[in-house]
TrEMBL record:
GO terms for molecular function: deacetylase activity; hydrolase activity; metal ion binding. Its cofactor is Mg(2+). It holds the Pfam family YdjC. It comes from Acinetobacter genomosp. 15BJ. The keyword Hydrolase applies. Keywords: Carbohydrate metabolism, Hydrolase, Magnesium, Metal-binding. The keyword Chaperone does not apply. GO terms for biological process: carbohydrate metabolic process. This is ChbG/HpnK family deacetylase.
């Protein structure tokens, strides 16, 4: 059986997202989630997550593009990419923000994150990855970092998948390896969020699954945020992951679900 970990991004972004993730953890569909500690909902969400946090991987979802507050260091994604690749990002501000998000996690969860990833995969960008890897080494980090170096490509999404991988995955992998920081090997979950048949996408990923596969997802119980461009996709993901069809698909494709830290 292929050992796979489903990880939900964006925990604490809003109550509907957090509720969906908590429910899916309880059913055994999810074994990892990454938290947005700048969110107003974080303190309440953390209290709900902490009692079950030893049974799954709980990570920090580093954010530099979603504006929760004017006090946070954030950019639009195009501007962040431009500044990162032109090396115009202020590394001190980046480190300060990473420290703030990290400390907010540790304060409420009572431990270091089990893993690190990034909202819109920004943790693999130039400057950010440099500061992040150095920071993790300083913290004697024992967890793992999400990596997109070996993504599973499926029809219609090959270009997007390879593009996201090309935005720093190899460099991040090299830096983590040099510092002896663990990473997932295979990665899936990339699509355009417009595809109406989420089950079909998952079946393609599961069909190609190998051990140490991390599948990213973004579930929510309801689409309440009109400013969220993937709100409807979140609901479709939740409906599938909470369905008997998902359990059947895992059985058909001989998938064993578990936390990523047990697969490394």
């Amino acid at each position: 059986m292929a050992k796979v970990c489903y990880c939900a991004d964006d925990f604490a972004m809003n109550p509907e997202i957090s509720d969906a993730i908590l429910l899916l953890i309880q059913t055994g569909a999810l074994h990892a989630t990454s938290c947005m500690t700048q969110a107003e909902h974080w303190s309440i969400a953390a209290q709900q997550l902490k009692p079950i946090s030893n049974n799954i991987d709980v990570g920090l979802h580093l954010n530099f593009t979603h504006r929760f507050s004017s006090a946070n260091t954030t950019f639009s994604l195009p501007i962040l990419m431009l500044k990162a690749w032109s090396r115009q990002l202020d590394s001190k501000l980046i480190q300060q923000s990473i420290e703030q998000q990290w400390n907010a996690f540790v304060e409420l969860m009572g431990k270091q994150p089990d893993f690190i990833d990034g909202h819109q995969h920004i943790h693999q960008f130039p400057v950010i990855r440099d500061v992040l890897v150095h920071f993790l080494k300083q913290q004697n980090f024992q967890g793992w970092v999400r990596n997109l170096q070996h993504p599973l490509t499926i029809s219609n999404y090959t270009i997007k998948t390879r593009l996201l991988s090309a935005l720093g995955a190899a460099s991040l992998a090299s830096q983590c390896k040099q510092k002896n920081i663990h990473q997932n090997h295979y990665f899936a979950g990339i699509y355009d969020f417009e595809h109406k048949n989420y089950a079909q996408l998952n079946q393609q990923w599961l069909m190609r699954a190998q051990d140490n596969l991390l599948i990213m997802c973004h579930p929510a119980t309801q689409a309440v945020d009109q400013q969220d461009p993937i709100a409807q996709a979140r609901v479709r993901e939740f409906q599938y992951l909470s369905s008997s069809q998902f359990r059947d698909d895992c059985r058909i494709y001989q998938i064993s679900l578990s936390p990523m830290d047990t697969l490394l």
